[in-house]
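Case study 2.
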Amino acid sequence: MPTDSPAPADTPRTPPAPAERVPAPAPERAAHRDPGPGPTLRDSDAPAPDAPRGYRAVFAVVEFRAVFAAHLLSLLGVVVSELALTVLVYDLTGSPLLSALTFALGLLPYIVGGTLFAGVADRYPARRVLVVCDLLCAACVAVMLVPATPVAGLLALRCLVAAVAPVFTGTRMAALTDILGEGDLYVLGRSLLRIVSQSAMLIGFGAGGVLLTVLSPRGAITVTVVTFLCSAALLRFGTRDRPARATTGDGGGTLLKEPLSGARLVLGDRRIRALMLLFWLPAMFVVAPEALAAPYADAIGAPPAALGLLLCAMAVGHIGAELFVGSALGPRNRSRIVLPVAAVGLLPLLVYVVRPGLPLALAALALAGAGAAYVIGLDQWFVDAVPQELRGRAMTLLTAGLMTVQGLGMALAGLAAEFFPVHQVVAGSGIIGTVCTLLLVAEVRRTAPGRMSDTEGRDGADRHVTSR
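Prediction:
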């Protein structure tokens, strides 16, 4: 499925089979109860000395290997198909607008799918939801291959695949807590999926360009059908079948009413709302230099190859920082850096005030990408704050909102660039984003466990959910 963006007990987990050689179980929820700004990890929670540590411990879990491989395959396929479909639409219409719209339609339906169908993630067993999503996307892409499919049909199918994506991603994020537990393994597993997502953007577009030199656009799109089917097979036969998190009565009402009820429960909790905004807000402002990379390269007189470097620099910084934080820092230190790193993560964009040349701009973008490393610790806070029976809906809403605010941020940056120089727009995004993030960091501190009453946390919303 396309993203991962951006990643999250009453029902006991199924114990792992002995043959799987799963590492020591993750610490119980009580030992990791939403640490907030200050860590609460106990020394007794540390893994056994001879157990795999870090990312190696995550890959030691057989089910996660299946999820990881499925994510890698489908994501590469989607990136290739996005490029190929854009070329196909342009070949059929000769319209740059429709070609660009093909890319935009990969983001816009997220909020629709994430809002209307979020209840699916908790109402049905996770494995069934994931497999059906993959098969549905494979069917949509297969119809794109039919020569008689009109351009309007291609765009509609693109919308449908994008609407399914947040349901798939949210369900998978929630299912990771069943596979890896709710502690450090979950955090590192989410980190690995994010790293794959960033890397796939770098590799996938390159692979798609190579494929289009030897295949027609529809031939390249065929690759996506195969990757979706392989992903479905890996998830069906490589993961366990677990019951749904919520009964049909938990959300109350029909499937279309459940998401609204779930969204009210999730966003009505002050703590969860603050943490979710901490995922969204920096991401909304950090996309400005990517959205304006082409006009900025032109403004500074950089060669054509500079555009690719400007688009890759932030992803390279993100991957490097996430690997370092996930490998070198323990859960306590990852928790400690969340708020400080989030607070300063957008400051590198202020370099654009001086209209930097290519080397300095690349360094600033890499640092801004590295600022996203705070999300590793934030993942743990979020999964601790969300009740299990709401987890699928919360993760789906998180994914849909993240993609939507990034699309909104790109649009606003483009609009501002119609009236102000590009370098001023990027610098302004850094300034405004930093001020907004600092206000949000203060709210996250105020909502830390022990600093507010349960009544304040609910904000008047009824957060009680019937136990299963």
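Residues 70 and 231 are 4 Å apart (CA to CA).
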